[in-house]
Specification:
Length: about 240
Amino acid sequence: MKTMIFLAIVLVSGALAGTIHGIVNLAIVEPYLDEAIGIENQNLFDSGEEENTPQFWVEYDAYRDWQKGGQVLAGAILGTSVGALFGIVYALSRHVLPSGNELKKTLTLAGVMWLALFFIPFLKYPANPPTVGDGETVVLRAVLYLSFIALSGFGAVAFYQLSKKIKSKSKIISLTGYGIFIATMFTLMPSNPDEVNAPMDLVDEFRIMSVVAVSVFWVSVAVILGVLWHKFRPHSQLPIAKNG
């Protein structure tokens, strides 16, 4: 393995995919955040917790501009971290992925990781806009969500390892086992403690756009890593290593 080339393409692919995700998020998710925060602000005005004054809007607009301005940078940083994980998993599992070119392999792995680490946990604990959720439960909600990601991810790895040990119909057995396991976790894990009190059309559209934005990231990191891996071939040995 050409370590420096491997590190470079993994970090570059993650950063670029994260930047793309940040731009997409800014374009299709932020409008729903603006609408949701607008409802939240109106609730604050109605309850008397805040006053609808020019000073409030100056501070609010400055804060939201700061948030939006850091959206792409935050995406690049998060993308680099997730891209590093994706690259490491790909390097370790490349030889067992379906035969074909690097792009086919990276897209296959990205699909598996998207399903196990994002979509299945999302079905249990879907994303909500700012108007949904009590501030006092934010830690509990984060723990539940991260716990479900861990259970789904480790469950997928465990049943994959099982499939390597069982020769006959291993894929069917492992997939069935994972399905039963994750269905059991769905039942046992507690539900989101917060009620959805925002307009459901807003919540549903926000969730759909969130899925689209995250899916764009996984497709992007798979395509970029696949193309770079094919071009630079970090898995091949250097000539000097072969002669040693």
